[in-house]
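Try it yourself: sequence plus acetyl coenzyme *A, in.
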Amino acid sequence: MLTNPETKYRPFNAFPFPERTWPNKTITQAPIWCAVDMRDGNQSLINPMDHDRKIKFFNLLIECGFKQIEVGFPSASDTEFNFVRHLIENNLIPDDVTIQVLTAARPELIERTFEALKGAKKVVIHVYNAIAEIFRRIVFNKSQDEIIEMSCNAAQLVSDFCEKNPDTHWTFEYSPENFSLAEMDFAIRICEAVTNVWKPSEQRPMIINLPSSVESSTPNIFADQIEYFCTHFTQRDKVCISVHPHNDRGTAIAAAELSLLAGADRIEGCLLGNGERTGNVDLIILALNLYSQGINPNVDFHDIKHVAAVVKECNELPVHPRHPYVGDLVFSAFSGSHQDAIKKGFQTRQKQEHSYWEMPYLPIDPADLGCSYEAVIRVNSQSGKSGSAWVLQQNHGIELPPHLQREFSNVIQEKTDQSGHELTPAEIWSTFREEYGLTGQNKLTLQEFNVEQNSPNNTKLKLALNIDGKKTTMIGEGNGVLSAGTAILKEKTQVDFRIEEYTEHTLGKSSDSRSISYIKCSNKKGESCWGVAIDNDILGSSLKALLNAVSKFIK
Ligand SMILES: CC(=O)SCCNC(=O)CCNC(=O)[C@H](O)C(C)(C)COP(=O)(O)OP(=O)(O)OC[C@H]1O[C@@H](n2cnc3c(N)ncnc32)[C@H](O)[C@@H]1OP(=O)(O)O
Ligand SMILES: CC(C)C(=O)C(=O)O
Ligand SMILES: [Mg+2]
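Structure, out:
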């Protein structure tokens, strides 16, 4: 039994803000992104990134198009310090990229941070200290005024160092850590105080980064807090409002999106949502959520598997197979009704006159992220007729007639039920070949044939057959090749059958394409069998399909 929560946990103390306007808004453009993988992500890893992993991650972020990258906490360790030096001294930071570094509001750490930054072209210098009551009481043992004094002293020291290094383009960033847990009016007061030290202007704004350092409320409350801050902060036009959501309640994405409605301009987060505890907000999800709504995210994930592979390698952490947009299973449907809808969606797409993506169960085109359609449908015992039909269509160009889809699906269902496992495309193909006579191991096989068209309604057919290994030649007549073949086979096998269904199509589009025929025969007992055959010409494939179907009666 769980402990009684009523005596252990308190509900989040929401503040009334009925003037909120964010619920009536929609997101129309991408925010400014800042990737904090190499700092917030890095500080949460089992083994923090070494130099090589940091370089790899940095290059990946640049490849993806991030223009603001928090590269580390230079005063934390020599690795961090030396990495920043390496970037600067080797001129590895593209001109359109600004590096960001974090420091606590402690003089010795600030001093060391500026040592690391000597010679940098453009830097966001990011200072933080916790401000919520629980932190003031437990961690700092300071009053509100004392915390403000600590922040302002740090801001002043940062400002002094910047003045001494005028060749660098500095942007100030202040994070009232644990903003979302703090009293809103205190959060505004401390940010106003820091802003008054840094004196930003509309031309030279500073960043105020509002973190849910530990996510503690529903995302609507976070959005209220952001809108409240944006509308009550007196120098709103001189600051860029950034948010930094964590994912403790699993709602960081929602919190980030709602905070954009509420007035935020910028988002700090990590690829794949790495970060302290349950992670920072996932920038890939946020960006692709925008993309799938027709909004250019201004970052590029056209090869998502490559991105995931590098992040996995650098973080030494796995990726969940259901991770949005990235996981191995996110573009795969196993269930019958999903498969049916997706298959119909692709058929409709071939005919549609507009370019919009309208695909049941697939909110984004896997091809946009560099993924193939191969795994869009996978087959197990939850699958329906469209599943196996899709696999044959995608891999072999086979367009099963509807009744054969149903019948083949029953064959597959029996197999998957028995094994309890997925059937691979190769297994589905070999099942199909065995079931409908494409392996060439049948009672009846065709050696040769000759057709004479005596009149429009009379065809003479000479068939050289192999029946159980013995060669026989027979002649028959009918009003077409198949009726002549039927006459021959009825006589030879003594099976009284008739052709119920016949379909054929070409495989491939070139002039030397092969032909595939599907024939369903039924006997007097009401039993029916399908035969399928592929041949260079249509007469060959139809006669072979007929033999393959009739072979089954003989068995
Ligand atoms: C929410 C966040 O992600 S914040 C970012 C956190 N990231 C990291 O901590 C990673 C890098 N940090 C480190 O490597 C180390 O913490 C260091 C090297 C920076 C500092 O190490 P230490 O000097 O041993 O200090 P430590 O980290 O234990 O800090 C505790 C002290 O700093 C104070 N402190 C903590 N945060 C802050 C802050 N933001 N501003 C000012 N003081 C702070 C604490 O009150 C405590 O003070 P006390 O010793 O007077 O009680
Ligand atoms: C340093 C700050 C921005 C932080 O990482 C947090 O509050 O989560
Ligand atoms: Mg954080």
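One thing you can check immediately is this: The mean pLDDT is 97.
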